[in-house]
């Protein structure tokens, strides 16, 4: 029996075991398998491990998406989580190249995936409070939000959770250095049903403002002169 002789349910089951690239390659072989590839039921879960993957055409975004994970840990991507004032020109150029990659992708998710239940972002140094705010507004069924080492996330995200995370049950803000203890306490007070986890966040040193950095440099130079 040829694979194309199987019914749609069997083909969907087979496709479910394949990664995104394998699904795309199989879909190129015939029109029937392309239709299976384009079936929204196949795309309820998506995992990404590098910024390049977000720009490929080997997946579909749609209302069937329930679980989304964008996690990368490579040394090159870690550069984006360094404070801007500590980056050299080469590092800044690298970050600039994919500064809006995740943000633009999440905007598509807001527009196309209203039934999203779980979002995990790890190492996404350019994701902002506004991205998360829009997601919470456009994906009202979101139950789990896990943010790890997302350095631009601040208490504004925590405030958005209290306002729009009506169904949220799990919130992680681990290694998010610009989140404060006051913001966490506000979530605990207003959303007692949310399981909150914040490893190495409120106790970390937040990014220094340019003015503060300049003052520190001047003070350091004075100490050297003394």
Summarize the structure.
By secondary structure, the chain is of the alpha/beta class.
What does this protein look like?
The structure is a single chain. This protein is an alpha/beta fold and 226 residues long. Mean pLDDT is 85; it is low at 210-217. It has 10 helices and 6 strands; from the N terminus they run H-H-H-E-E-H-H-H-E-H-E-H-E-H-E-H. Strand 3, helix 7 and strand 4 (144-148) form a beta-alpha-beta unit. The protein has 2 domains: 1-42, Monooxygenase (Up-down Bundle), CATH 1.20.1280; 44-224, Leucine-rich repeat, LRR (right-handed beta-alpha superhelix), CATH 3.80.10.
Compile the SSE list and pairings:
Layout: H1 8-16, H2 20-27, H3 31-37, E1 45-48, E2 67-71, H4 75-78, H5 89-97, H6 101-112, E3 118-122, H7 129-138, E4 144-148, H8 155-164, E5 170-174, H9 181-190, E6 195-197, H10 210-225
Parallel strand pairs: 1-2, 2-3, 3-4, 4-5, 5-6
Structural class comes to: alpha/beta
Name given to the CATH architecture of the largest domain: Alpha-Beta Horseshoe
DSSP helix fraction: 40-55%
* Biggest pleated-sheet summary: 6 strands, parallel
Work out the number of β strands: 6
DSSP summary: helix tally? 10
Mean pLDDT: 85
- Number of domain modules: 2
The strand line-up of the biggest sheet is 1-2-3-4-5-6
CATH topology of the largest domain: Leucine-rich repeat, LRR (right-handed beta-alpha superhelix)
Estimate what percentage of residues fall within beta strands.
Answer: 5-15%
Q: Low-confidence spans: pLDDT under 50, at least 5 residues?
A: 210-217
Oligomer class: single chain
Distance between the termini: 86 Å
Radius of gyration: 21 Å
What is the N-to-C succession of helices and strands? HHHEEHHHEHEHEHEH
